[in-house]
Write a structure and sequence with these properties.
Layout lengths: L4 H33 L20 H7 L7 H32 L5 H10 L9 H11 L6 H8 L3 H12 L3 H9 L4 H12 L1 H17 L2 H6 L8 H6 L10 H31 L5
């Protein structure tokens, strides 16, 4: 059968959308299964069917009650505090580092920049024991400090992105500001920082996402249930000495991923711009 050019293009378009739609359903199936499980009874939550026989919205109420008198409101508040503080600190310190590597001159500048990039090759797991010994000697174990402060330190990947971005800002703007009597800090806050908006949002999204989902760090350092973030609280549903309420666990798991989804939806444009304009292909 001979097809015209327009018919071939239409057929290609249909096949493309069918394949993309099928792949999308395949990728979203675990999420849909989890949402469906949050609306089933605890005994049927693990069944393969996506449509529950009867909507069990009470799973959300039961899950929200939490454990030992501590509701999920406390766990969510702790997660927002940890992730929000770490994100703000990361954005400020990484942008300061990028400004120092691009707009100032000091001895061994290229060497220290190479050392910073080389730290990407160091696995975070090998730092667990030294960090724990150090924080324990300082008396920080049991507080939020060992959870938040290391995550505020500049991540080499974010610093590299910002360095590439700052290099694209004309130095003539700095020179004009210096003529007008602007200090280095003034140049940073009035010229550099406002122009870093896309890459700042990119770093912020990644830092918030990593901090929100972090499980091992709070598990090591937090000892009081009132300080647990959501990532640790979800683990408490799986108690080998009790019957697991799968419906409530799925309900709280679904609520726990909503902040990151909403954050990505609202800032995805800046995320794309931050990577595209920083010289990363």
């Amino acid at each position: 059968m001979n097809l015209t050019f327009s018919q071939k293009e239409k057929l290609k378009n249909i096949l493309f959308h069918v394949l993309v739609g099928g792949f999308c359903i395949f990728m979203l199936y675990p999420l849909l299964w989890m949402v469906a499980g949050s609306l089933k009874t605890s005994g049927n939550a693990l069944s393969a069917t996506l449509w529950p026989e009867a909507m069990q919205f009470r799973n959300y109420l039961e899950g929200w009650k939490g454990f030992g008198g501590v509701s999920f409101l406390t766990f969510f508040r702790n997660s927002f505090f940890i992730a929000g503080t770490a994100t703000i600190g990361q954005i400020l310190l990484a942008s300061f580092s990028a400004f120092g590597f691009t707009r100032t001159r000091f001895i061994g500048q290229k060497f220290w920049f190479a050392i910073m990039i080389a730290t990407v090759l160091v696995p975070g797991q090998i730092l667990r024991i030294p960090q724990y010994i150090m924080f324990n000697q300082w008396g920080w174990v049991g507080s939020f400090l060992p959870v938040i402060l290391p995550q505020m330190l500049p991540v080499p990947f974010f610093t590299f992105l910002m360095v590439q971005f700052v290099r694209g800002i004309p130095t003539e703007l700095d020179e004009a500001a210096e003529i007008d009597g602007c200090s280095k800090f003034g140049i940073f806050f009035k010229i550099i920082l406002p122009n870093l908006k896309p890459v700042l949002v990119t770093a912020g999204i990644f830092r918030f996402y990593w901090s929100w989902n972090d499980f091992m760090t709070p598990l090591l350092y937090l000892q009081n249930v009132t300080k647990y973030p959501v990532s640790i609280a979800l683990k408490m549903f799986s108690d080998p000495n009790a019957i697991t309420n799968w419906g409530a666990m799925f309900a709280m798991t679904f609520l726990s991923i909503l902040p990151t989804i909403i954050l990505f939806i609202f800032f995805q444009r800046y995320l794309i711009d931050g990577v595209a304009f920083s010289g990363i292909d």
